[in-house]
Amino acid sequence: QYNSFNSFVYLFCMGLFMQAKYAIMFLWPRSFVNESAFWDKCWKLLLLDNQQVKFSSQSHGNLLQTSETTLPDSIKTSNDTLFNQYLAGVIDGDGGLYLSKAGYASLDITVETKDIAILYYIQNILGGTVQPRVGVNAVRYRLHNTKAMLNVIDRVNGWVRNTKRVEQLKKLCLHFGVVFKSPQPLSLNNPWFAGFFDTDGTISYSFKHGRPQLYIGVSNKLEVDVTYFKDFFGGNTQYDKNSDSYKWAIYAEKDIRQFFNYSQSCPVHSAKVNRSLQQLQ
């Protein structure tokens, strides 16, 4: 049993500062053993047992490479609902469904280079290309084959819910003669949250009354597009003037624990989580 969630938060932040357990054990031997075991267990439940992407240190040109994604057989089927929901979340976060003036449809998803595993995870199922963006620390996934795009539309129709993305999907549906489906209700078993978090989420800390405090959050241009997280995980949303976006965040122990529990069944694939895990190993 643990008397204070501050111990949980403190271990996280010291892991960021020292990047080694032994540094914490040296400075705080009195409470390290039990609280460290608790912290390790939480993160392993959240991530280690759910990782489906294997990373490689090999590089090719300026583009970081990952090994082949390891996927359950069910994910590889064309009608897998869980992957489709995850894909819709990624597209809602940092993707785009486009229709050129010449009538060519395409899907673009851009992420930071460190999160390239997300794109390979998707490419392994849908096809398409993954290439570095010139002059910026980012990589882009692109799909523009007509048959493949019809497959994407079929997969995410009814799951995409970002305000801008819904309008883009409507245009594609109209162009291809597909009936547009309104977004279906979300639930805590829906990987849409994981997909959105992979692209627009963060795990970090802030200081409150001079003490570090863990928080989990997501951001987007419109408040309506982040309130889904508030509805299911608690917390608050507020406008951030510096980034000209709305941010949702949770700080309370019960809310963070609920997000952890969700992530056990709907794992995330971005480097932000793997980085946090490495700092505690």
Automatic annotation (TrEMBL):
MF terms (GO), sorted A to Z: endonuclease activity
A Pfam family it matches: LAGLIDADG_1
Keywords: Endonuclease, Hydrolase, Membrane, Mitochondrion, Nuclease, Transmembrane, Transmembrane helix
Domain of life: Eukaryota
Domain Homing endonuclease LAGLIDADG: 87-172, 194-274
InterPro entries associated with the record: Homing_endonucl (IPR027434), LAGLIDADG_dom (IPR004860)
Transmembrane parts of this sequence: 7-28
PANTHER family tied to this protein: INTRON-ENCODED DNA ENDONUCLEASE AI2A-RELATED (PTHR37520)
The protein, known as: LAGLIDADG endonuclease
Organism lineage: Eukaryota, Viridiplantae, Chlorophyta, core chlorophytes, Chlorophyceae
